[in-house]
C-alpha cells in the first residue's frame, strides 16, 4: 500500500471517528431520554419548540437584552436550567465520548498527514485564473 493511500485512509478514519462516535452516543442516549420519564421528554421538546418559536423574535429579544435588569437575567437563566435539567446526564455522556473521540481522531489525522503530507504547488506564486 502506498504512503498516500495510508494517509488518506487515516484521514478518512479520523473524520468518521470524530463524527461517528458522538453521533452513536447521541443515538444511544436519546432513547433513554424518552423512556426515562415524561418530564425529560417534555423538557427536551420544550427546548426544541421554544427555540423554533423564538426565531421570528430574535431581533426584538436581542434589542431587549442589550441592557436587561438583573432580575430578568436571573429568571431567564433559571427557566433555561429548569428546562434542560432532565437531559443533562445524557448530554454529559455525549460530550465525554465526543471529546475522547476527537482527541483520538486528531492523533489519527496527524498520522495521516505524516503518510500523506499536504502539497504546496506553486511555492507562493498563485495564478488565480488571470493571464500569466
Structure explained in plain terms:
The structure is a single chain. This protein has five helices and no strands. It has helices at 3-36, 38-54, 58-64, 70-84, 88-115. Helix 1 (3-36) runs antiparallel to helix 5 (88-115). The longest helix is centred in the N-terminal third of the chain and has 34 residues, at 3-36. It is elongated. The model has no long low-confidence stretch (mean pLDDT 76).
Helix-strand layout with pairing:
Blueprint: H1 3-36, H2 38-54, H3 58-64, H4 70-84, H5 88-115
Distance between the termini: 39 Å
Outline the biggest β-sheet. none
Helix content, binned percent: over 70%
**How does the helix and strand content classify structurally?**
mainly alpha
Q: What integer is the average pLDDT?
A: 76
Q: Which sequence of SSEs, written as H and E, runs from N to C?
A: HHHHH
Task: Summarize the structure in short.
The chain is mainly alpha-helical and 132 residues long.
Task: List the keywords.
mainly alpha; 77% helix; elongated; 132 residues; 0% strand
Amino acid at each position: 500500500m502506498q504512503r498516500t493511500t495510508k494517509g488518506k485512509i487515516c484521514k478518512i478514519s479520523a473524520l468518521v471517528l470524530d463524527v461517528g462516535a458522538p453521533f452513536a452516543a447521541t443515538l444511544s442516549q436519546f432513547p433513554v431520554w424518552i423512556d426515562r420519564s415524561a418530564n425529560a421528554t417534555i423538557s427536551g421538546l420544550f427546548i426544541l419548540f421554544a427555540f423554533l418559536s423564538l426565531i421570528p423574535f430574535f431581533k426584538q429579544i436581542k434589542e431587549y437584552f442589550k441592557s436587561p435588569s438583573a432580575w430578568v437575567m436571573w429568571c431567564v437563566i433559571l427557566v433555561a436550567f429548569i428546562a434542560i435539567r432532565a437531559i443533562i446526564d445524557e448530554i454529559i455522556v455525549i460530550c465525554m465520548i465526543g471529546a475522547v473521540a476527537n482527541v483520538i481522531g486528531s492523533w489519527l489525522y496527524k498520522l495521516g498527514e505524516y503518510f500523506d503530507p499536504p502539497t504546496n504547488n506553486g511555492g507562493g506564486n498563485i495564478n488565480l485564473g488571470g493571464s500569466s
